[in-house]
Amino acid sequence: MKYLEEYRDPKAVEKIAAAIRRTVTRPWTLMEVCGGQTHTIVKTGLEALLPSEITLIHGPGCPVCVTPLELIDKAIALATKPGVTFCSFGDMLRVPGSRGSLFAAKAEGADVRIVYSPLDAVKLAQANPKRQVVFFSVGFETTAPANAMAVWEAARLGIANFSVLVAHVLVPPALRAILESPGCQVKAFLAPGHVCTVTGVEEYREISLTYGVPIVVTGFEPVDLLEGIRMAVSQLESGRAELESQYSRVVRREGNQHALRLMKEVFETSPRVWRGIGMIPASGLCLRPAFASFDAETRFALDIAPVSESKECIAGLVLQGLRKPYECPAFAVRCTPENPLGAPMVSSEGACAAYYLYGRRE
Amino acid sequence: MCLAIPGKLISVEERLDSDMRVGKVDFGGVNKEINLAFTPEAKPGDYVLVHVGFALSVVDEAEAQRIFDDLELLGALGESEEPLA
Prior knowledge:
The complex is a heterodimer.
Chain A: H1 10-23, E1 28-34, H2 35-44, E2 54-61, H3 63-66, H4 69-79, E3 84-88, H5 102-107, E4 111-114, H6 118-127, E5 132-139, H7 144-157, E6 162-169, H8 171-180, E7 188-192, H9 193-199, H10 202-211, E8 215-218, H11 222-237, E9 243-245, H12 257-266, E10 267-274, E11 278-287, H13 296-299, H14 315-319, H15 351-358
Chain B: E1 5-14, E2 21-27, E3 30-35, E4 47-51, E5 54-58, H1 61-79
Antiparallel strand pairs in B: 1-2, 1-4, 2-3, 4-5
């Protein structure tokens, strides 16, 4: 397909890898922020093409991985209520809560549906006025405008049996938290191209300036990722720390104003707990008061006991890039995609599952 | 989860029952109806980047080509053994 295949061309990949090898003189640690980027890197074995000086650490850009246990428990509690149809993107279904998952709840008879688009959940509510349809509104800034549109449409059409369980997270506060953590190893970031398609790049320019760290807005195909790495390494080697974009075929400096406007009309920022990392101020989204009647957490009385994570799981360290997945004693032994201890083993975009599936442990 | 795929916009439809534009997008032979509310500038023939049923951006053809032009330059530099700054 156009705009995909040419960015997977092995000759182009090798040319860029050679340029990186010619440029690098010292060890550098880079973080690719988005789980989709991690998936491409591990699946295609790009790390093997890089000189030994370059270390890639895999960032927390996987909404499935950072949604707290408590919210998964809430999702399961909602899904198992009589009269509720619970809709979600497919990758949330296998995430382990403290007891079971949405998938297990579905197997036991709960009405759990996988939707492709959040508007499908609104249509389902419209077609089934006697059911309460709850949509699991998760994702980064890429997904938030689409989810905002679902709430906005439901409000416009007066669909009273639709609501959302909101678990939205924002990328820039997480980058700041990583840069401010005492053990931070990251010398440059590959910023998530699809998040920036929505938000634009100015907030990343600000982070680059504030912390003196090179940031390259990067796409998701092998050529994109290697070119992003080449641009970041070139900045590091020449002592520059700027915002650059590798993904200009898609990302505009100002982002997508139509999407942003709707996102800001429906959602406002809120503190958010990130699974494995903890509370980050102003790092999430919640419904604005005007749309509060669509909040599933207030519409349904949910009595969720506080829970703690598996003691053995080191997901927090993996998500901050302080450990590689295979450095965990449970990796591929007591923790597998079939029986995950923590969320990064669930989604194929989670660093643990990517290493498990594609077997790279060097 | 931020997976987004480029596809070719084949046709655009204005819906009377809604203020949302939708269009038919071809993903390598698979056609899907896609919401164009966030890309009012998209016209048939454009490639749009699609995420969870919404077009988020119109792919800029000139920018898409640029990386390959830069690659030619990288290749030429490599062959002449010039160090890259």
